[in-house]
Amino acid sequence: MGNGSGNFLIGTAHLRARDVAEAAADPAVKFVLSTDALELIGLSREVVQQAIESGHSVYGLNTLLGSGRDTAVEDKSILAYQVQVVRYHNSGVGDPLDRDEVRAVMLARLVGFSRGGSGVRPETARFYAEMLNRGVVPAIPRDGSVGSADLTHLAAVAAVAIGEGQTVAPDGKLVPGGQALADGGLAPLELAPGEALALVSSNSYSIGVGALVLHRILRLADLADTALALSLEATARHDGGGNLSPFSPAVQAAKAVDGQAVTAGNVRRLLRGGWLEDPTREASVQDALSFRAAPQTHGAFRWQVTALEDALEVELNGRGDNPLTDLDSGRMVSGGNFQPMQLALAFEGLRLGLAHLGISSERRIAKLYPPQRRIRQRHLEAARNGAALEPEELPGLLWYSAAGLLSELKVLAAPATLGAPTLSADIEDHSTLAPLALQLLERSVDAAEKLLAIEALTAAYLLGGAEARAVRPLGKGTGAVVERLSGLLARHLPAAALVEEARIELNGAMGSVLGRALNGDHNGGAER
Fold it and tell me: Across-strand partners of 166?
C-alpha cells in the first residue's frame, strides 16, 4: 500500500502479507498511519479509559497476569506495573534477529495497533512508527516465545521504547536502548495504564517473520518448476524421457487440484519453442513419477503456500489482543485470539510439503547421474593419450549432498507444535509453538533451495554443449537459465560456492529471464 514516494500507508483496509514483507525488507521505506487508523486507535483507547473509570477487574489492566489473573493491582501502582510487565517479559534468549526481521516484527505490531483491538494511545502507535522510520533496531533474541503471543520478542521492543533494553547499531554492535532513542531524536515513551500488555500481547514475530518467509517460498515454488523443466530437458537428451503429456491441459483439467495447473503451465512455458515440443520426437511412454506426477506434488505445495498466505493475512488484519477492546460493546473482553493455531499449522504443513518436493527433486537428480558418469568416462579415456584431464565443472558428489539435504528435510518435517508444556500454574495449558514451527520452516526453505539449485546445476551441466543445443534446441525459458548456469559451471567453483552462487543466480532469473516466461499467464506465485 505504498504511495510511490517510499511511504507505506497503514490504514484500516486489508493489508497483504507479501506487501508487508517487501516493506519490511526495504530499510528506505517509511511508515505512515492514516487519519482513519489513528481515529480507530483513539476510539479503542476510549474503551480502555472507560474500563479504568468503571473500577471493574480487567485482565492485565488492573490485575496481574497468568496465574495471578485474579490478583488486583492497586491504582497507585498501575504506572509502575507497566514498567514491571515490560521488564518481566523481556526474557528472550539466543542470537538477535536480523534487521529485516526486526522491522517485520515491529511493522506487524504497528499494523495490529491500527486494527483497533489493542487499546494503546495514538501517540504510542506513532512512536512505534517513528522508531521504524528513524532506524531504531531493538535487539530481539530469537528464542523465548511458545506461540501464545510472542511475549519475549515484543517485550524486547517495548523495553527499547521505554528507554531500556538494547539495540543493534548498523555495524552490529549493541547499543543501550535509551542512547539509540536519543540518537534518533526520540524521548523514551511513558506507558499509560494497560499499554504494557498491549505492546507484548501479539504474535508479531510469527506474523512478521512469517511474511518474510512467505516471500522466499513464493520464489521457491517457481524455482521448483524451473528445476523440473531443466531435468525434463536433460532426461530427454540422455535417457529418451521428457514426455510432456502429464503437463498437458487435458490432464490438468481432469483434476482440480489448486496449483497443479500453475506448475504444468510454468513447465510448458519454460519449454516453449524447444525440441521437447516436436511432435515427431520419440520419447518414453511414461517417465518416472518424480517427473510424471510432479505437477501434482508441486501443485499441492502451491496450495499449501496459499494456505500460509491466507493464515498470515487473517492474523495481520485481525485483532489478536487480550483483553480485546471491543468498540461495539464498549468493553474490554478476555479471549484467546492470541493463539495463532491456523498459522502454526500452516508452518507445520509446509515443512512436510517441502520434504515431498525434495523427494521428487533428489530422485530426478539420481536419474541424471548415469549420463554424468559417461561424460567423466570419456574425459578419462581422452586423458589416456596424454591429454590433460578435463577439469570438473560439476562436483561429482553433489548428488550425495542432495541426499543429505533431503534427509534434513525429512527430519524437519516432524511435528513441532505438539511439544509445549503447560505453564503458569497450569492456567496456560496449551500453546501453539508457532515460532518454533516457523524457525524449522526457515531451515527447510534453506535446505530446499540448495537441493533445487543442485538439481538445476546438474541438468544445466548435461545441457551445456552448444552443438547438441543447435540440433536439439532448448525451450526459450530453460535455454536462458542454462545460459546463466553454464557461466557459473565454467568457473570451476568449489561445491559450496557453486551451489550458493546458483541460488543467487536462480533468484535473479525468477525476476528477469523467467519473469517473461512465467508472468505471461499468472503472477509467478501460488495460485490465488
Answer: 176
Q: What predicted TM-score, i.e. pTM, was given to this entire model?
A: 0.94
Radius of gyration of the chain (CA): 27
Strand 174-176 versus strand 166-168 pairing type = antiparallel
For 166, the enclosing helix (H) or strand (E) is strand 166-168
pLDDT per residue, tens digit, the chain (528 aa), is 444 459 999 999 999 999 999 999 999 999 999 999 999 999 999 999 999 888 888 888 888 787 778 787 887 888 999 999 999 999 999 999 999 999 999 999 999 999 999 999 999 999 999 999 999 999 999 999 998 999 999 999 999 999 999 999 999 999 999 999 999 999 999 999 999 999 999 999 999 999 999 999 999 999 999 999 999 999 999 999 999 999 999 999 998 788 999 999 999 999 999 999 998 898 888 999 999 999 999 999 999 999 999 999 999 999 999 899 999 999 999 988 899 999 999 999 999 999 999 999 999 999 999 999 998 888 888 888 778 888 889 998 999 999 999 999 999 999 999 987 887 766 677 888 999 999 999 999 999 999 999 999 999 999 987 666 767 899 999 999 999 999 999 999 999 999 999 999 998 877 666 566 655 444 434 433
In this structure, which long-range contacts are made by residues 427-433, counting pairs with CB atoms below 8 Å and at least 24 apart in sequence? Answer: 427/66, 427/67, 427/69, 428/66, 428/148, 430/148, 430/339, 431/146, 431/147, 431/148, 431/339, 432/146, 432/147, 432/148, 432/339, 432/340, 432/341, 432/343, 432/344, 433/146, 433/147, 433/344
DSSP 45-82: HHHHHHHHHHT---TTTTB-SGGGTTSB--GGGHHHHH
CA gap 92, 76 in Å, rounded? 29
Nearest to 305 by CA among 349, 261, 366: 349
Cα 395 from Cα 264, distance rounded (Å): 30
- Residues 6 or more apart from 260 whose CB is under 8 A from it? 252, 295, 296, 298, 299, 300, 302
CB 23 within 8 A of CB 8: yes
Phi first, then psi: what are they for 240, rounded to 5°? Answer: 70, 20
Quick one: how far is CA 248 from the chain centroid?
31
Three cell numbers at 302? 502451491
Q: How far apart are CA 163 and CA 160, in angstroms?
A: 5
Q: Pull the grid cell for residue 364.
A: 530426478
